[in-house]
């Protein structure tokens, strides 16, 4: 079962994903995104989202979140800009990436192995 990033978006429900993926995907698309076409044409696998429970991240991992912003929601709120789509701004996604790297990479003598 896919664990979606907590959001109020409709993207985590059908019909999003039903045509190509045959289930709800949490994507802002019913099918493939441009990055998927690029990956497929290069012979690369589609990357699983970081929040997908039990996903195989051996070929890579996708930290992107639909509707996310570059600035944190606190910064936007201070400028009276509402961001009701998600609270996972770029800094949250980078924190996920940092945590993932720390849990999967070994640091030895200053080099990542």
Describe this protein's structure.
By secondary structure, the chain is of the alpha+beta class. It has one domain. It is built from three helices and four strands. The chain has helices at 34-41, 73-78, 90-104, and strands spanning 48-49, 61-62, 107-108, 111-112. The strands form two sheets. A two-stranded parallel sheet has the order 1-2. Strands 3-4 form a two-stranded antiparallel sheet. A hairpin with a 2-residue loop joins strand 3 (107-108) and strand 4. The protein is globular. It starts with 33 loop residues before the first helix and ends with a strand. The model has no long low-confidence stretch (mean pLDDT 80). This is GDSL esterase/lipase. Belongs to the 'GDSL' lipolytic enzyme family.
Mean pLDDT: 80
Query: How far do the termini sit from each other?
Result: 31 Å
Report the radius of gyration as a whole number of Å: 16 Å
Low-confidence stretches: none
Strand order of the largest sheet: 1-2
Structural class from helices and strands? alpha+beta
Q: Please estimate the helix content.
A: 25-40%
Give the helices and strands as they follow along the chain: HEEHHEE
> How many domains, as an integer?
1
Number of helices: 3
Main β-sheet description: 2 strands, parallel
Write down the overall geometry: globular
Work out the number of β strands. 4
What is the chains' assembly state? Answer: single chain
Strand % is: 5-15%
Protein name: GDSL esterase/lipase
Family: Belongs to the 'GDSL' lipolytic enzyme family.
Organism: Abeliophyllum distichum
């Amino acid at each position: 079962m896919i664990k979606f990033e907590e959001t109020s978006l409709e993207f985590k429900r059908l019909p999003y994903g039903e045509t190509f993926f045959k289930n709800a995907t949490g994507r802002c698309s019913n099918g493939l995104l441009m990055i998927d076409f690029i990956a497929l044409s290069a012979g690369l696998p589609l990357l699983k989202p970081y929040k997908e429970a039990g996903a195989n991240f051996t070929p890579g991992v996708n930290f992107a979140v639909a509707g996310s912003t570059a600035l944190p929601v606190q910064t936007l709120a201070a400028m009276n800009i509402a961001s009701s789509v998600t609270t996972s701004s770029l800094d949250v996604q980078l924190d996920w990436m940092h945590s993932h790297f720390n849990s999967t990479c070994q640091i030895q003598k200053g080099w990542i192995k």
